[in-house]
Specification:
The chain is an all-alpha fold and 318 residues long. The chain contains 13 helices and no strands. It has a single domain (2-317), classed as Up-down Bundle (Amino acid/polyamine transporter I), CATH 1.20.1740.
Length: 318
């Protein structure tokens, strides 16, 4: 909503299209590489390092790991902000809540990927319910959309783009789980491209629907404006929780595997890839990632973290 309120309908559509164009070009490149080699643990880093060399792979792999690790904090902070809309939680410390959630997800990742993936099915159901609720509401009360941008002081087009861009970076998560896939050569291209197209359609439709149902001032001021539009508002809140928690869980599963691959290639200290009794789980990398995410939680709010993630992701994609 904030993106549409700042950039207007046309500007928001351009931002969504530009962000998805970047991820599409990246996805096509990764898909082409994935189909031409045997893919092991490390996902995007493995593909790049084996096609362009360890030097270039390391230069891309480290920012990729940092972007995914920081994303854990970003998504959890988003979840906490939505949680604080409930009166019962408003008196609690937001950073403390975020820390507890990050540590909980770290424990889930430490246990293993199979357990985490089972949780994602529940999350998917919640997301589908939220989308149905959102697009089922507001059919009889539409406004003339504000087409042009009306940025508040200090906000620019690229600042808005930087806040939105992390929303389309989840394509790297699936590929980072390459070591857990039965046939990564097929699964990575199909999953990556499908996720790009599905999310592009959903984001474009959401931008249009928001512009038709709320003024720019309401979109900027009300972070949960979708609840007021939805047919069943409670499903939106559940969907926001599900979306942020799902993304955080995906990142906390993916980032350690990139770190493990970097360690196996001696780009980083080899001890970071230790499994601590597990056959496949990168448990030391999980502990490091969890600690890094907790540190980021205590460094700033959502608007502080988002541009940092965007910088690392754009550096990786470039």
């Amino acid at each position: 909503g904030w993106v549409v309120g700042q950039a207007g309908l046309v500007g928001a559509l351009v931002i969504v299209a530009l962000a998805n164009a970047i991820t599409l070009l990246t996805g096509l490149s990764l898909s082409a590489i994935a189909t031409s080699m045997r893919v092991r643990t490390g996902g995007n880093y493995y593909l790049i390092s084996r096609s362009l060399g360890l030097e270039i792979g390391g230069a891309i792999g480290i920012p990729l790991y940092l972007s995914q690790a920081i994303s854990v904090a970003f998504y959890v902070i988003g979840f906490t902000e939505a949680l604080l809309s409930i009166p019962f939680f408003q008196a609690m410390d937001a950073r403390l809540i975020s820390t507890v959630v990050v540590v909980l997800f770290g424990v889930i990742a430490y246990i293993g990927a199979d357990f985490a993936l089972r949780i994602q099915y529940v999350v998917l159901a919640a997301l589908v319910g939220a989308l149905i609720s959102f697009f089922a509401g507001g059919w009889g009360d539409m406004l003339a959309p504000t087409l042009a941008a009306d940025f508040t002081p200090g906000v620019t087009f690229w600042a808005v783009f930087a806040v939105f861009f992390p929303a389309v970076t989840g394509i790297t998560v699936g590929a980072s789980m390459s070591g857990d896939l039965k046939d990564p050569g097929k699964s990575i291209p199909r999953g990556t491209l499908a996720s790009i197209f599905v999310t592009a359609v959903i984001y474009l439709a959401t931008v249009i629907w928001l512009a038709l149902h709320a003024s720019p001032s309401d979109l900027i001021a009300n972070n949960l404006i979708m609840q007021e539009i939805a047919a069943w508002p409670v499903l939106i809140l559940i969907g926001v929780w599900a979306a942020t928690l799902s993304s955080a869980l995906g990142s906390v599963m993916a980032a350690p595997r990139v770190l493990q691959a970097l360690a196996f290639d001696n780009v980083l200290p080899r001890g970071l890839g230790a499994r601590l009794g597990s056959k496949t789980e990168p448990r030391v990398a999980v502990l490091v990632t969890t600690a890094l995410a907790v540190a980021v939680v205590w460094m700033g709010d959502l608007n502080f973290v988002a541009p940092v993630i965007s910088m690392f992701f754009l550096n990786t994609y470039g």
